[in-house]
From TrEMBL:
Name used for this protein in its record: OsmC family protein
Signal peptide: none
Pfam families according to UniProt: OsmC
Lineage, broadest ranks: Bacteria, Pseudomonadati, Pseudomonadota, Betaproteobacteria, Burkholderiales
Organism, as annotated: Sapientia aquatica
InterPro entries: KH_dom-like_a/b, OsmC/Ohr_fam, OsmC/Ohrsf
Superkingdom, taxonomy of origin: Bacteria
Length: 145
């Protein structure tokens, strides 16, 4: 896996990252750091990448477990160290899984497998941060009426 990150010019702190799969993502800094607030901060990208990694795992595991899911969302809230390097020190993952007759123990198992075995990003993040999880299940049959 590889990517290239390029500064877009002499003014501001906007960067374009191109992934090995050919996708381009912009990143920018805060105005007080020379940025223009045109795109997510690099550390926000780390957080959202981690959320994407674990959400992918959870959906895949739930589908393979025979669960009928219609939506899966994970909200990440975090705290960072006060001083440089400002690593993540706490990250909480809250999953909302929607579907029909989704079993809580299967959701718990999917989250646990993601965070202990499959999600490389959260496993790396766990080296500096206290990781916690919670979840809600919304029965789509009940919420449709």
């Amino acid at each position: 896996m590889e990517c290239t990150v390029r500064w877009t010019g002499l003014s501001g702190m906007t960067f374009l990252a191109e992934t090995g799969s050919g996708h381009v993502v912009a990143m920018d800094g805060a105005p007080d750091g020379g940025g223009r607030n045109l795109a997510p901060r690099p550390m926000e990208m780390v957080l959202l990448g981690t959320g994407g990694c674990t959400a992918y795992d959870v959906v895949l595991i739930l589908r393979k477990s025979g669960q009928t899911i219609t939506d899966c969302e994970v909200k990440l809230t975090s705290e960072r160290a006060e001083k440089d390097p400002k690593v993540f020190t706490k990250v909480h993952f809250h999953f909302t899984v929607k579907g029909s007759n989704v079993k809580p123990n299967t959701v718990e198992r999917a989250i646990k497998l993601s965070h202990e075995k499959y999600c490389s990003a959260s496993i790396m993040m766990e080296k500096t941060a206290e990781i916690t999880h919670s979840y809600d299940i919304v029965d789509s049959a009940l919420s449709a009426g």
